Amino acid sequence: MIWLLTFLSCIWLIGAESPFNHRVHNERVIGGHDAQPNTWKWQVSLQYDAYDDALYYHICGGTIVESFYIMTAAHCILSMDPKLYRVVVGEYNLYKYDGSEQFIPVERIIVHPGWNGDLGKGNDIALLRLANPVYNNGYVAIANLPYPGQMLPHGFTCYITGWGLMSDGGSTPDILQVAPINVVEHSVCSQPDWWGSIALRTMVCAGGDGVISGCQGDSGGPLSCFTGGAWTVHGVVSYGPSGMCNQVSKPTVFTRVSSFQDWIYSVLQS
């Protein structure tokens, strides 16, 4: 796991490693519940082979943004060697092979050029070029993305999905978790008793009610919101508070996808 050095006392990355060999030890969204099967079709499990021994670890979530590309958080990239990663799309139960999954090697890693390892500076976004395309088997879908610069209003309800901690130091479900989570507008999230100056306009804050939040293992996953008549991915899970994940006035912070549209499309078109 990569940790933010300058803000280590108040921030930790929402990205945990868990042993994986299709059966995975991992953790989930706090305050969530089992997702309905075949619902969040753009959700990805990003997995890492730390010892190059064909045993993969679920380290982060991700989003299908094109048949050859996955979007995730830059801090999820533990090595720039693409051979150490694979993605699983169509995943639901990490302990069980359901026949819906596609296991795809990563061919190339593209980290945003503005990422410097400091979460407070933002740019926590990366794209993974796959060795083989995602194919439509009925269990996957390419995510809709927001229009450039789009910002959601305060209190707008979105959904966080992932296999992250369900409580601080808590249990390890096998099923994809989902929870409703309300957007906290920048003018609130950037107040001193919230996230202050490290909450940038290129980020989306959501939660902060002390009940629902992302947590370790959710990093890189989508913030899905029903806007413009369709489900749209507005955020990439980036960071949360140290200690307890679900702290009042310390919402989960996402990279704002609408702030990076030009970069995303430049990569996809290349």
From TrEMBL:
Q: Which GO terms describe its molecular function?
A: serine-type endopeptidase activity
User: Which top-rank group of organisms is this from?
Assistant: Eukaryota
Q: What is the designated name of this protein?
A: Chymotrypsin-like elastase family member 2A
Show the GO cellular component annotation of the record. extracellular space
Concerning InterPro entries, the annotation shows: Peptidase_S1_Elastase_sf, Peptidase_S1_PA, Peptidase_S1_PA_chymotrypsin, Peptidase_S1A, Trypsin_dom, TRYPSIN_HIS, TRYPSIN_SER
Gene3D superfamilies this protein is in? Answer: Trypsin-like serine proteases (2.40.10.10)
For whether the record's keyword set contains Transmembrane, the answer is no
Gene source species: Mastacembelus armatus
> What are the residue boundaries of the Peptidase S1 domain, all occurrences included?
29-269
Alphabetically sorted, this entry's keywords are: Disulfide bond, Hydrolase, Protease, Serine protease, Signal
Biological process terms from the Gene Ontology for this record are: proteolysis
Give start-end of the signal peptide: 1-16
